[in-house]
Design a protein that fits this description.
The chain contains twelve helices and twelve strands. It has about 325 residues and is an alpha/beta fold. The chain has two domains: about 200 residues, Alpha-Beta Complex (inorganic pyrophosphatase (n-terminal core)), CATH 3.90.1640; about 120 residues, Diaminopimelate Epimerase, Chain A, domain 1, CATH 3.10.310.30. The strands form two sheets. It has a six-stranded parallel beta sheet with strand order 3-2-1-4-5-6, covered by helices on one side. A six-stranded mixed beta sheet has the order 7-8-9-10-12-11, sandwiched between helices. A hairpin with a 3-residue loop joins strand 11 and strand 12.
Length: about 325
């Protein structure tokens, strides 16, 4: 059965494809702290543009986490540097709820005569010239599926692999945020060549030993607050040093906290480069972590969100997050 978009979504797809067909040179980028939906959607659209005879370049603020480097074309993805000097016709910002989340890449985005934003986050304010934002999709990969289908009338095996990875990871292995289109899109991607067992093995079953050693240290400071049913842990630069790991080796740690039966709210605090502390938040109950993240300039979804702090210690960030959780409980925003 053919999947039909709403009239508004179909109009947005048509408007974007009109730009894709008319213009020649495209810059693709996504948010900092790249996840599976971001890189999968980005590479799939890159492939589709190349098949359509367009020039395209992917430039991101962060490197691709190791677990996603099995995807095609990852070696063609550039990490931002001041030496990259381009003036694209169109910049497409993918899976990104605000311009500042692209980091310094936005300096390149601003050079484009047209900026397009494709995103499924509820908190997106609409910062581009043309915004296709709709939180009723499970993942941005689901939106890109429809875009490529309209642009090229088909989806290649490599694109199917990327989009399947995007949806698989952003739904927590099809556990949450499943939408009316999701399983129909996934079935079509499998029919077009996506290999579920292969992708799941690469993403979930090939964690390096150093990452497990880092997790061991992080679990040493695991905390649980019974009244609020809140669980969290912190990862410091010293832990990275002791285990010879990087921030990318924490991929999936937050999902382990979600599995704790007694916890309804979980968060992971980790030190990053340039004096930045990152916080990942998840909720299993009615508590809205997107609302919590927005208090600190972050965003995401009701059950999965994140934010950044600069110039604060892990302990200071921990206290700020706990204080805000307490305030939200007192106001009944659970």
């Amino acid at each position: 059965m053919e999947i039909q978009l709403s009239l508004n979504d179909a109009k947005k797809v048509s408007e974007i494809c009109e730009i894709l067909e008319k213009e020649r040179y495209f810059l693709l980028t996504t948010h900092r702290n790249i996840d599976g939906d971001a890189i999968g959607s980005e590479i799939a659209l890159y492939s589709a543009l190349k098949r359509a005879g367009k020039e395209a370049i992917i430039v991101n603020y962060d490197s691709i986490p190791a677990i996603y480097r099995f995807l095609p074309y990852t070696k063609r993805v550039h990490i931002y540097s001041s030496e990259i000097s381009i003036t694209p016709d169109v910049a497409i910002v993918i899976d990104c709820g605000s311009s500042d989340r692209t980091g310094n890449v936005f300096k390149l985005v601003k050079k484009a005569k047209i900026v397009v934003n494709i995103d499924h986050h509820f908190s997106n304010p609409g910062f581009a010239h043309l915004n296709w934002t709709n939180h009723n999709f499970s993942a941005t990969g689901e939106m890109v599926y429809f875009l490529i289908s309209y642009l090229n009338r088909d989806i290649s095996r490599k694109e199917a692999e990327c989009l399947y990875t995007a949806i698989l990871t952003d739904t927590g292995s099809f556990i949450y945020n499943i939408k009316p289109f999701t399983m129909g899109v996934v079935q079509d991607l499998i029919n077009r060549g996506a290999a579920p067992e292969k992708i799941a093995k690469k993403v979930y079953l090939e964690r390096p030993l150093r990452s497990i050693k880092l997790l061991y240290l992080a679990l040493g400071n695991l905390k649980f607050e019974r009244e609020r049913k809140t669980c969290w842990m912190k990862i410091s630069r010293d832990m990275y040093r002791k285990t010879r790991t990087k921030e990318e080796d924490t991929e999936g740690f937050i999902d382990l906290l979600v599995k704790i039966k007694e916890a309804n709210i979980v968060f992971l605090i980790k030190e990053a480069h340039n004096n930045v502390v990152k916080v990942s938040l998840r909720s299993k109950g009615r508590f809205d972590v997107e609302c919590l993240a927005s208090k600190f300039g972050g965003g995401g979804h009701k059950k999965a969100a994140g934010c950044y702090f600069t110039g604060l210690s892990l302990d200071e960030v921990e206290q700020k997050v706990l204080n805000e959780i307490d305030k939200m409980f007192q106001k009944g925003r659970m």
